[in-house]
Design brief:
This protein is mainly α. It has helices spanning 2-10, 18-33, 37-52, 57-62.
Length: 63
């Protein structure tokens, strides 16, 4: 999710490759069995993306 956020922010076209598809397939079991997993993962991915982009908490709260 974090890479998707960063690709969207930077305008990088996101291409699916065999490794990515295999990686995602590995998480399907977890996603199907934990309703909160997607929300928790999205929140953590957003925090990581904000950190990579150098956003401070104050800037994020202003948005």
């Amino acid at each position: 999710m974090g890479s998707a956020y960063l690709c969207g922010h930077t305008g990088i076209e996101n291409r699916v490759i065999d490794n990515s598809a295999s990686y995602i397939a590995g998480w399907l079991f977890r996603l199907k069995n934990d309703n909160r997993f997607v929300i928790q993962s999205a929140a953590q991915a957003q925090k990581a993306s904000d950190y990579i982009l150098g956003k401070k908490l104050e800037e994020i709260l202003e948005e």
